[in-house]
Amino acid sequence: MPEGRHVAIIGAGAVGVVSAIETLREGHRVTLIDPGEPGGEQAASYGNAGWLSSHSVIPPAEPGIWKKVPGYLMDPLGPLAIRWSYLPKALPWLVKYLLSGWTEARVEKTAFALRDLLKDAPLLHRKLAEEAGVPELVERNGVMHVFPSRGNFDNDLGWRLRKKVGVEWLELNADEMRQREPDLHPRYTFGVVVEEAGRCRDPGAYVAALANHALASGAKLVRAKATGLKLSGNKLVAVITETGEIPCDAAVVAAGAHSKRLTASVGDPLPLETERGYHVMIENPESGPRSSMMASDAKMVVNWTDKGLRAAGTVEIAGLKAAPNWKRAEILRNHLLSMFPKLPKDIPASRIKTWFGHRPSMPDGLPCIGHARASRDIIYAFGHGHIGLVGSARTGRLVAQLLSDKQPEIPLAPFAPTRFL
């Protein structure tokens, strides 16, 4: 492929801005297209839990999860909720979701693929943060998982598979946990520390800094909503936006949960869904963890950020347009207060911030990274689900390699968009 192509990157979230940086490094010209502010509150990157968890290799669906679907439908406030009104539209995606985790062998195959994508991600992000002038926003000091009992850990398929794919961890008994985390509720009696993992102290500020770095390196930013891709035969000629066409030689679709319409415009009807997520953040908290952690019983990550103590997690299947159910954020707050009893129960509402956004998720837990069927000028890079921030570092490198017709640094067959077509 010719060098120095003009590449339009649709989406200025974590995947889009890292793709821009790496594409510029390959000698191409870059135009970022996004109607919103990079790192702004509208973006999934902004609301991310802040974990750079290179061990997040387990897809959401595991064997036997189909037995829990009736409960998901009946409980609008559970860790995974499905709104009845959206069920008919979500059903095809849900069927694929359940089938993807039907057997342990399928989940294991996914885990190996995700390990390739995420391995060394904290180091890659640290280098990007240094380049962007914000090294303080990325820390590589491990994360902790806490459990009510050792049995909760031993019976978890995810940890058996993590061991298979090469993840290592340090195990802690109750006393060792208490030494590390004196404010944690004593009901947690077992923990593991994944020392290779890291965290981001402000995901929104980090993505904004990466975008500024891309712009300082020569990229342009167009504030517009992309609505389609224009082809002439098998050649891309422009990205269509609400304000006009942007001529280009190649395009990257990294528009997160809004990518579906763009792929459909060139004949790729991919099963992308939004896993709607929430977070709650307490400003100037009186108590909390010393390290970033996930509570197995609450299915929730707790992470210190520069803006406050953030708790993020849970999934809601209800589409892009439904109004938020802020009771889900209240549940996260209640879990946080329960985990750390020294936090006052009457924290003023002015110190509690809530957020709602859209995780772009493929039913099998693997993002789409690869060429469109209609043209090799179009690269897809979306659908990362819960691993968008951590997975963006290597995804951006892969995008640049594909654009330059270079051998990708990891096998891309598991991520091929054609697996659904």
From TrEMBL:
Keywords, ordered alphabetically: Oxidoreductase
Q: Which GO terms describe its cellular component?
A: cytoplasm
* GO MF annotations, alphabetized: oxidoreductase activity
What positions does the domain FAD dependent oxidoreductase occupy? 6-402
Oxidoreductase found in the keyword field: yes
Q: Does the keyword Heme apply?
A: no
Protein name listed in UniProt: Dehydrogenase
